[in-house]
Specification:
Blueprint lengths: L1 E10 L2 E11 L4 E5 L6 H8 L9 E6 L2 E2 L5 H7 L1 E4 L11 H8 L6 H14 L1 H5 L10 H13 L5 E5 L7 H16 L3 E6 L2 H7 L2 E6 L2 E7 H5 L2 H8 L1 H16 L4
Parallel strand pairs: 3-8, 3-9, 6-7, 7-8
Antiparallel strand pairs: 1-2, 1-4, 4-5, 9-10
Helix pairs in contact: 3-6
Length: 255
């Protein structure tokens, strides 16, 4: 669905992305992992057209059509949605108003209202808070709102930037269950994360970034058995636990 070919992105004269290439396969979750400053968020911002006149080199294809250097509004209309780092909800708007903002390019008011009700079904806490200002929500509630707002654009692809940032371990697990559920409904997800353990549990394919380039990539199962990944991101006990989760997940019937 999304193919990145040899893109180079600069901030002023500083090269941040050094010719990266990757694919986000349709219907799957693709994760980009790396430390702060590796270039993960810059990759998303480049795809979304949020960095002026970038990428300087390379191509970005969405459903085999070039989208690099298009403005962000055009990308949203093509079916790309964004859940930004830090949630970035509109704090002085209510929960319902934030959802309506997510649907601002859509015209059918009756369908939009039905979709808002679907969001309330998916996220019951948002229904309870529908008339509450978004700035008064907890961090986890704001993250749910940010995801629901993205879904209101009826996307084919959602880009998520650090959805676990600043959340408690319990809420992180809840958010990642939501991410899996969204993906099972057929929506492709490109996920940028520092929480490697959770990303490996949900992702089908993983790319690991350092200093603006990818140093490893493969399926989550392949990289879970990579010695460098074990040492840097997990440790032996944690990776063994991950393998157990994978076996459990493969046997379970998901609804």
């Amino acid at each position: 669905m999304l193919e990145i070919k040899n893109i180079e992105t600069y901030y002023d004269k500083v090269k941040v992305l050094n010719g990266i290439s990757f694919i986000a396969e349709e219907g799957k979750i693709t994760a980009i992992l790396g430390n702060n400053g590796a270039g993960k968020s810059t990759a998303l911002n480049t795809i979304l057209g949020l960095i002026k006149n970038q990428p300087e080199k390379g191509t970005i294809l969405f459903n085999n059509k070039p989208i690099h250097l298009k403005n962000t509004e055009n990308l949203i209309s093509l079916g790309i949605a964004y859940v930004p780092e830090g949630r970035e909800v509109f704090e002085e708007l209510t929960v319902k108003e934030n959802l309506l903002v997510g649907a601002y390019l859509r015209k059918n008011k009756k369908v939009i209202e039905k979709d808002i009700q679907k969001m309330y079904d998916h996220f019951p806490v948002l229904k309870d808070r529908m008339n509450q200002f978004a700035g008064t929500l907890s961090g986890g509630e704001q993250q749910m709102l940010a995801i629901a707002r993205a879904l209101m654009s009826n996307p084919k692809l959602i880009l998520m930037d650090e959805p676990s940032l600043g959340l408690s371990p319990l809420l992180v697990k809840e958010i990642f269950k939501i991410i899996e559920t969204i993906n099972k409904k057929g929506i492709t997800i490109l996920l940028v994360e520092q929480n490697a353990n959770m990303a490996f549990q949900v992702a089908h394919n993983v790319y690991i970034m350092e200093n603006g380039k990818f140093v490893l990539n493969g399926t989550s199962e392949e990289l879970a058995n990579n010695e460098d990944v074990k040492e840097i991101y997990f440790g032996v006990k944690e990776i063994e636990s991950l393998k157990g989760y994978k076996r459990y997940k493969s046997k379970r019937t998901w609804r």
